[in-house]
Amino acid sequence: MKFLIEGGKALSGKISVQGSKNSALPILAATLLIKGKSVIHNCPKITDVDAAIDILKDFGCVVTRSDRTVTVDASYVKNCNVSDYLMRRMRSSILFLGPVLSRLKKARFSSPGGCEIGLRPIDLHLWALRLLGAEINEKSGIIDCKAEKGLKGNRIHLSFPSVGATENILLACVCAKGTTVLSNAAREPEIIDLAAFLNESGAHIYGAGESTVVIVGTDSLHSASHNVIADRIVGATYLFSSAITGGEIEIDNIIPTHLESVFPVLEETGCKIKRTDTSVFLSSPERLSRVKSVRTLPFPGFPTDLQSPLTALLSVAEGTSVVTENIFENRYKYISELVRLGANIRVEGSSAIVDGVKKLYGTSVCATDLRGGFALVIAALKAQGETVINNIHHIDRGYEAAEKTLSSLGANIKRIT
Ligand code: UD1
């Protein structure tokens, strides 16, 4: 599948943003802990959610979907394996390890291996599960886990505030015996959303969103319903899409406090931002200005998921910008594709040095990963002439019908199947 984009149209108008992928996935994994029905509203219609639903069905859950509401009945869970195929389809399948181990006292997962943005090891996940009493054997790409006597709370200090490890720990110990004190936990809004769902289901999690989280184990969780928060990353990328084209955009159901690190960067480019508690309005200048230096960091720092969309935006900003990636070691694959569109960017170590050009020119490019793929969309919206973006299945993993949202703002974009 491809996108065909005729650049040069200013993107203006009002949109609503989809539910968060990075909240929906761990919340769907959490439903495995509940011997009953969970109703999850505002689940985005993206292929990563399709993959999570297939995994739940594989475990034996009954899953139904009506528009953006997913209902999971996990009364009976019979299987404790995640196959190589499902693991490769979505790396976040590893989030099911904690809940399966907690519920069935055993789990057998295929090792996730590397992915498009780097090695992405899971050593912290496994180390923490061992501290909770799991016996883990890794052999020939298979992770075999057992906790015959059940998991037991412990003190865990993460050497890095990994989002996935924090989520797996929460999922593993909400139903463990005793109390877990997790320090140097990730503080992303999606962790707070996961903890909110678990607490609505009867868990006792205190301090989610702070560095230290205390989890008092409980015997069982009960049915609950939950509304997934708005996707801050998708919201920001639509702001960037309008900004690069000189447009004016309003996003009406966003949580602006989740984007505190992004607004100053957009303001440095010359964009004007107005916000309420639930909406953001952006108007852009005729020519964007360079941003001196942006470094990706764990939340509340500038998100690594916005590194590539920002670099696309800065590729046409006047002057030289420096963007530094501190979270993933190989998140610059999309840059050679941006260069094909006429951008002047060089990578030095973990930094991208972006010399803003006046114009980009449409050509054929390939999406290399989810966010890097959307970075190409942003650049194509500005480029003169037609751009073909191949391999857009990467973009469909996280964006709900991106072409519809962009068309509603005035973009000339078509999906070719
Ligand atoms: C999550 C997000 C992803 C985002 C990332 C960082 C989901 C589904 N995905 O990914 O969109 O880009 O957070 O905000 O929520 N690491 C290890 N060992 C581990 C775990 C992680 O070395 O056991 C390293 C990773 O290789 C990476 C860094 O820690 O360099 C951050 O990874 P982590 O925060 O775990 O990201 P994910 O949960 O995979």
What's the end-to-end separation, in Å?
5 Å
How many helical elements? 14
Overall 3D geometry?
elongated
**Contiguous runs where pLDDT drops below 50 for at least 5 residues:** none
- Averaged pLDDT, please? 96
User: Helicity level, as a percent range?
Assistant: 25-40%
> Rg, please?
21 Å
Bound molecules: uridine-diphosphate-N-acetylglucosamine
Beta strand %: 15-25%
Structural class: alpha/beta
Number of strands: 24
List the strand order in the largest sheet. Answer: 22-23-1-24
Main sheet summary: 4 strands, mixed
Overview of the structural elements:
The protein has helices at 21-30, 47-59, 84-89, 97-104, 123-131, 163-173, 189-200, 232-244, 263-268, 307-314, 335-340, 370-382, 393-396, 402-408; strands at 2-6, 13-15, 37-41, 62-66, 69-73, 81-82, 106-110, 135-139, 142-146, 155-157, 179-183, 204-206, 213-216, 224-227, 248-251, 272-275, 280-283, 293-295, 320-324, 344-348, 351-355, 364-366, 386-390, 412-416. The mean pLDDT is 96. The strands form six sheets. It has a four-stranded mixed beta sheet with strand order 22-23-1-24. The protein has a four-stranded mixed beta sheet with strand order 2-15-17-16. The protein is α/β, with parallel strands linked by helices. Uridine-diphosphate-N-acetylglucosamine is lined by residues 22, 25, 92, 120-125, 160, 162-165, 190, 304-305, 327-328.
